[in-house]
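so my prof wants the structure for this chain in the tokens format not the other one, which i didnt know existed until like an hour ago. anyway here's the sequence
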Amino acid sequence: APPAHCTNRHTTRATVTQREQKELRTCTAPSSSHVRMLSSLLPSSLAFLAESDLTIGIKHTSAYGFRREQLDRLLRSIRRRYATAEVIVADDGCKADRTAVYTHNVTLVCTEAGSGLSLGRNTIVRRASTEFVLLLDDDVVFSEATDLAALHDALVRDPGAALAGGCYDDLVRGDADCFNLAFSVTGGGTAVAARFATLQAQGGGCGVVDATHNFFLARRSALVQHGWDARQKVMEHETFFYALWLHGQRVLACPAVRVQHNTSRSLAYVSSSLRFGRMAYFLQYLCKDFPEVASFATPFIRWDCATRTYCEPTFNARFPYNAPECGKAMPWWEDEDDRSAVELPLVTRAHVEAWGAVDAGSASPTARELGLPRVPLLMMIMTHPTSAASRARRTHQRATWLSKEWRQRDRPWPVPWRYLYVMGEDGSPTPRVSPSSTTAISGDSLRLLGTAEGYRNLVHKVVAAMRWAATEVDFDVLLKADDDVVVHVSSLYDWVWRLTPQRRHALYAGYVWRGKPVVRSDKLSQSWGRWAVPYEQYGEPTYPPYADGSAYALGRDAVALVLQGVTERERAGAPLLEVEDAFVGVMLAAAAGRAANVTPTHWPLRTLRAGASAKFKPPDDISPWPQLWVVQPEEAAAEAAGGAEAVRAAAERLAWTKTAEAAAKAANRITPADKVGKLFVPPASAGDNGSAPLSFTPPAHCAKRRRPK
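here's what i got, hopefully its the right format
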């Protein structure tokens, strides 16, 4: 029953004094008639929030008695001011005080013990149904300065803002803590620095910042789209706000809106909480969620993702990052999923700031109308999502050439390029539980949901990637590559952009095979089975010229022709050729009548054919060898020299050929593609690259081999 002072009030606004309105806010558990009366007395924006438009979400840790007491105090303070607002408590461990929960009419959602902050906040957002969600922790208390209407009004005035945050009044130290940060990015997103922001107050005393406290009112739609990485049980703050910044979501700070923060901690909490002692284990996920970031610095901690170390600076020191505590090894779980859980745009604010005005004249008119992101050179790297070997190769690529700030040859501008790892489905769960669509970019990975993994399905994966690129990106050239290649991006860009726009858009380039025989499973040993093609798929004895699948470049017009051929085969009910690189050549050869300019071009580079050895690792910096545009680990060279010496030897042996005569001489050499395991197979009667037949004498061990069935 409402207190006496609540039931004896007049119901008309004109007869209620300001003091009486203040007393009315202390009413708890009001009747329905009293709710209507109370709403008529309060300001319109606050009444609208309290009745229909606000959910208050609290992340609670119930394993500790003092946190259960703090939750009860918080709920009492909420109900004194917002009697009818929906309150959801995400309880980590499900030991919350049920009496307090039922007394204050709270929805309790239990999560697994030790599940952490991120999972709890995602759970609150999923359970909420209102337009706005207020998020806060259980160690705060509402005060007279907790004016949620001011946060709501700030969001209403700025429709492009995702959230509006307030400040803390520290109950222990007795000072105000606002924690407003501003991000600055260099190197196209490789180096991030977060510094304390200088607030430029706008209407209502609120201003734009890049990060604020974990006490904020947010649009639920923004939280659904840009949630938290559930693997980050703690240390989630920087990841969440940096993802908002990359998406261009504005963050507001309202210093006049405050809650009281109790920073005291019990001994049991300090000794067993994830925040104290085990914080370092969760630093790795910022690096995994933003694979392009090499360093991320805040006033309180610095991540060095490139070296997998971190630093907690010395406060009030002249050189805070020179402390002995710097350079600590960051715990990194190698056997865990390395995929990002943060959905990002292909071109972020960091890339736009680094590129400036990039080649805008070559943009497709249709793409401009649709507002597609402009990426002149798009690289799509095929990889397996959970294979240990693929994960190791991705780690090495990210640590070397993918993280390099490539610049154009003759100009001091960065190369406008982007890369994506393309992954299908292999039955394993993705880091993000509920993907937003059939394709989604998480970090540097493109998930093709509904496309199965496996070599026999590679052609469908490549076609799905091309379809995504053709509809979602405004590109000039698409480079398809495998996850065991090294690309000299500056050299590739320099060569491609020397072509005319018409030639560039019709480009089909790579290490071209000519006169390649079609493998039939009934004639060759089982080791050739992955390349075997039945007659009903392709009846010709040889393939038309095609670029090797390790890496090849396609202009946007060539991609359109490939997709047109695929659509025609699908309509006719004809299967796709399972040898992916040969299939691309077949599609473009069939389209030769419609586009005579799309012909395979042997680019001025040599591709080192891949071996099965995992011993080979390319050097960390390939910039001294610009002639190595696309490199694959070569087993024979790795066994002979290994590491950088292997690449240097290969560079001398397979250097960029500048004359047709030198190119023809290089084409006559036997490459590691001519051997299968330890069994040497003589080449076809004509050279694979259209050259004269090679003289070949099998080694002695070949004669002793049992002939294949």
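also thought this was worth mentioning. Residues 9 and 20 are 8 Å apart (CA to CA).
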